[in-house]
Structures are given as structure tokens and as C-alpha cells.
Design brief:
Blueprint: H1 3-9, H2 17-22, E1 29-32, H3 42-51, E2 56-59, H4 71-75, E3 79-84, H5 91-98, E4 103-106, H6 109-121, E5 125-128, E6 142-145, E7 148-154, E8 158-169, E9 174-175, H7 184-190, E10 191-202, E11 221-224
Helix pairs in contact: 6-7
Length: 235
């Protein structure tokens, strides 16, 4: 039976935090939703720290802030590598990179989003002219299409994806809150195992179908969130 079929059969995906943490092990690749910390799942991130998970490859928009979002994990030296669009909001990440304690792979923000989308869609990569004739093209394959050169940017997936939603039903259909939507819908698609932290969990049928952004087929587990540590940063 395929993994996708298993997801369809399991109608109630609500689990406990301990169950979610079982899937997040040291050395795994972890993709996270959020933009500058906004929209990152705080309960899951705090639990990762408490569990002592380390040696992670983190994939997401940025390195957060030192004490907000995924920045907490980065600042404690739990990541061996970041694949992000920037790290400027977290000076500790910059210092770890300079000291050779953490590898950082930079990808232009739009390109990064498309690489994640491609991973979730099952594509091998995307073609883009962003970065041609610059340091960005180093080590990348160049492909000519109709006489125009493009860089091949490989798709991104992860062992586990963690996302934050305003509301989820028990099957995993998701609604996001305003700008906290950011990269979460793409990240939800690109994890081999996707865990959702939801502010509110309702029964199937209680969400307006017109408001659902992520269908539950992409979600493996839902946990109840217990607090948000990023809203104040943007008020």
C-alpha cells in the first residue's frame, strides 16, 4: 500500500506531541514554515529543543531571530546545515557560518519557494535565469532552452516538514492566518512526513471548503498548539 493511500484511509490524524517528536530525530532533514519567525510552529520548535535533537539540516525561508521561530534551534547550534534565502535576522547564524560550525546554502527567495514547490509536486527541479553570471551559478548545471540559458535548481524535500495553521480539521485540511500563511502551504507538500501545529482543531466538515488552503492529503499528523512566540514581533 502506498504512503499516499495510507494518508487517505487515516481520517483522524490528531496526535500527541510525543508522537510527533518520534519522527524528528537527530541527523534528519527538517523543513519548516514561517517568514522571519512568523508562521513557524512554536510548540514543535520548543519541543525539538527540549528533546535535544541535533545535527539537523534545516530548510526554510530564513534563520529566524535568535529567540524567535527556528532561530532558537539555530542559535543553540543544533543545525549542521541551513538551506535558506537569508540569515540576516539572526546574527548567531552568521557567526556559526563564519566559524565553520554550520554550512549555509543560500537560494534566492523566489527560487527557494519554487524548489520547495517542485519537491512537493514530485518534480526534479526548476529552470531559472536568476543567478546567471554570478556566484549563484557555481557548481550548478546550465541548460539552454530555445537559445536562452537557465540554471537547473534541484527540488527540495525533507524527512519531516513542520507547519503552523490557524485551523485544522481532524483530517488535516488547513486554514492559515493572514501573513502566517507565507511558506507553510509549500512546506506542507514537501515533507515525507508532515506535522501540523494548529491553533484550533475542529471536526471534519466544520471548515468552509472555500477557505481551505492545504488539503489534508498532505498532512500526516496534527497537534494542538499551546502558544505563539512570534506575534508580538510584528505588532
Amino acid at each position: 500500500m502506498s504512503e499516499q493511500t495510507k494518508r487517505v484511509i487515516k481520517m483522524n490524524k490528531v496526535g500527541h506531541l510525543d508522537d510527533a517528536l518520534f519522527s524528528i530525530q537527530s541527523g534528519c532533514s527538517l523543513m519548516f514554515g514561517g517568514f522571519g519567525g512568523v508562521g513557524s510552529p512554536p510548540t514543535l520548535i520548543n519541543a525539538i529543543l527540549e528533546k535535544g535533537v541535533t545535527n539537523l539540516t534545516l530548510i526554510g525561508n530564513d534563520a529566524g531571530f535568535p529567540t524567535i521561530g527556528i532561530g532558537k534551534v539555530v542559535s543553540q547550534g543544533r543545525a549542521k546545515k541551513l538551506i535558506v534565502s537569508h540569515i540576516g535576522s539572526n546574527p548567531i547564524a552568521g557567526q556559526l557560518m563564519i566559524d565553520g560550525k554550520m554550512e549555509v546554502e543560500f537560494s534566492p527567495q523566489g527560487t527557494l519557494a519554487e524548489r520547495i514547490r517542485a519537491g512537493g509536486a514530485g518534480l526534479g527541479g526548476i529552470l531559472t535565469d536568476i543567478g546567471l553570471d554570478s556566484m549563484v551559478e557555481k557548481g550548478k548545471q546550465k541548460i539552454s532552452v530555445n537559445g536562452k540559458d537557465f540554471l537547473l535548481e534541484t527540488a527540495l524535500t525533507a524527512d519531516v516538514a513542520i507547519v503552523y495553521a490557524k485551523k485544522a480539521d481532524t483530517f488535516g485540511n488547513l486554514i492559515y492566518e493572514a501573513s502566517a500563511r507565507n511558506t507553510n502551504p509549500l512546506v506542507a507538500m514537501a515533507g515525507r512526513y508532515t506535522i501540523v501545529e494548529a491553533e484550533e482543531i475542529v471536526e471534519i466538515g466544520e471548515l468552509d471548503p472555500e477557505h481551505i488552503i492545504t488539503p489534508g492529503i498532505y498532512v500526516d499528523m496534527i497537534i494542538q498548539g499551546v502558544g505563539i512566540d512570534w506575534k508580538w514581533a510584528w505588532e
